[in-house]
Design brief:
alpha+beta; GMP Synthetase, Chain A, domain 3; 4 domains; five-stranded mixed beta barrel; four-stranded antiparallel β-sheet; about 25% helix; about 25% strand; elongated
């Protein structure tokens, strides 16, 4: 059995444990491919693909050491940002993380174009006495790592609970009758809003009860026209009549 453990982002990784399961919201020391790391238990025991094992509940000494390493990781962050400015490298350093033994430094970065940061590996390794790993992040992963506010005014889903990014297409926005304005249908990451995916099944159900756009439809009173616009949430359609006027009618009024 495993428990889901959260680190810097909301994405859970699952670790097997021996004996009694660690309690929810407890901090634990886990063994990963990079070494020992501290994370927070966020799920009860369940069967899931393993990323490593729970070594122990985190002690006060573990948490104090992790806090000191976060300060050191901030030093690495600002040092590397300064070096990139000096060298004119067009890349954004998002954050740095040390393993609990301080021997492995992960550097998360984003760049619009392909860049090679390996030339800074030896310099960082010598300065911080750790093996250095550079991890490139895409626009969505960048928003997830840094944390952002969504169009709803709340913290974005990707930085609070989302476990993966679904494929989002412009068709979802069309089905929801949204204006195809990038500023209206894009998130802080610059990509199409993830919430379009969550809402789409409801719109599919509602649209199935309405005639297709551009189809000819008539009311029970015999008024006919071309379906100009669909309002799935209201359950109405707008008919474009022959005289150029529009008429909004409910689905129950259609013949």
């Amino acid at each position: 059995m495993t428990v889901g453990v959260r680190f810097r982002t909301p994405v859970l990784r699952y670790f097997r444990f021996q004996g009694e399961p660690p309690p929810l919201d407890a901090y634990v020391v886990v063994r990963t491919s990079r070494g020992l790391e501290v994370g927070k238990v966020r799920t009860p025991p369940k069967k899931a693909p393993e990323a490593g094992e729970v070594v122990r509940l985190a002690s006060k000494e573990d948490l104090d050491r992790a806090a000191r390493l976060r300060v050191r990781a901030e030093e690495a962050l600002f040092y590397l940002r300064a070096r990139l400015r000096e060298e004119g490298v067009e890349a954004k350093v998002l954050g740095c993380d040390f393993t609990l033994d301080g021997r492995h430094l992960s550097v998360h970065y984003a760049a619009q174009e392909r860049v090679n940061l390996r030339r800074f590996t030896h310099e960082l390794a010598e300065r911080f006495q750790a093996r250095v790993e550079f991890l490139a992040e895409g626009p969505r992963e960048e928003a997830q790592y840094l944390g952002t506010l969504g169009a709803c005014g709340m913290e974005s889903c990707c930085s609070t609970w989302l476990q993966g990014f679904a494929q989002v297409s412009i068709k979802l926005a069309r089905d929801q009758q949204l204006p195809l304005n990038p500023e209206k249908i894009s998130g802080p990451c610059g990509r199409l809003l993830c919430c379009l995916v969550y809402e789409h099944p409801v719109y599919q159900e509602l649209l199935a009860e309405l005639p297709r756009k551009n189809a000819r439809a008539c009311t029970r009173e015999g008024v006919c026209g071309k379906v100009h616009k669909l309002n799935p949430l209201k359950g109405t359609v707008e008919l474009l009549l022959e005289d150029g006027k529009t008429l909004e009618v409910g689905k129950e009024e259609l013949a």
